[in-house]
Design brief:
- The chain is mainly α.
- 72% of the residues lie in helices and 0% in strands.
- It has two helices and no strands.
- It has helices spanning 2-41, 60-70.
Length: 71
């Protein structure tokens, strides 16, 4: 019986820790979003470095870099 009770309390403790961790992560994400929005509002242009792929590569990263440099 004691082992069962310890398991129940341990699972409750783990759930609480998980919720606390998720809350911390959510707050960090919100802070980062605010910083990004402030930087974008200041007019800073986000530049992407050239991916080290083959010249004829058509992946997402290469396409984004080509569009950036086409302007």
């Amino acid at each position: 019986m004691r082992a069962f009770i310890e398991r129940v309390f341990k699972s409750k403790k783990l759930k609480k820790e998980k919720k606390d961790t998720e809350a911390i992560v959510e707050s960090i994400i919100e802070e980062v979003k605010e910083v990004i929005i402030k930087e974008l509002k200041q007019g800073e242009v986000v530049t992407y470095s050239k991916p080290k792929h083959f010249p004829d590569c058509n992946c997402f990263k290469c396409g984004r870099w080509k569009q950036q440099n086409a302007k």
